[in-house]
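Study both lines:
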Amino acid sequence: MSFAIIAVLVGATACGSNGSGTAQPTRTITKTPPTVTATTSEPSTPSQSVPSGSASQTQYLSDLDPLKSTQGVDTSIVEINGEGFARSVTLIVNAAGPVNSAEYNLGRHWDRFSATAGLRDDSPTGGKLTFEVSVDGKQEYSETIPLGKSQEIDLDVSDALRLKLTVTYSGQDDGSSYYGSWGNAHLQS
């Protein structure tokens, strides 16, 4: 019989009784789940090919892969006319491959193209090459430059889609390769 009384008292306490026979008020606690807001964003565009904002941006061609190249591109450190250039594009030509070009996508995002053009100082003595720059298929620059000379280039490429650099062999020593370099070739916005 004592088990039955204990069970009744435990049951009454669990149901809100204070043991004196009066029921205690019950509280209901409601938890509201946190609000989650889903957002979506567009994939980011690589910063190397698209400038953003109004701040001036610089992009070296040595950091970009050309869309196409006839004989490949060398992006090593060079010396042109005794001056060193850490970020350059070099196109190698010879009698077997007299023309070498590289084409880059500008995506209509850049305003200027600048470089120092000339033969790399370790090219054979007496060499000269023709350097050309075309923008969207239109030749904007052409100059024949001998070894030991250089030419500063600064061209407007506003709203341009393609930039093409070309070096042409002039037929000197048939057994040698010549290195037409574009020292610190870069784009600016």
Summary: Residues 2-14 form the longest helix (13 residues).
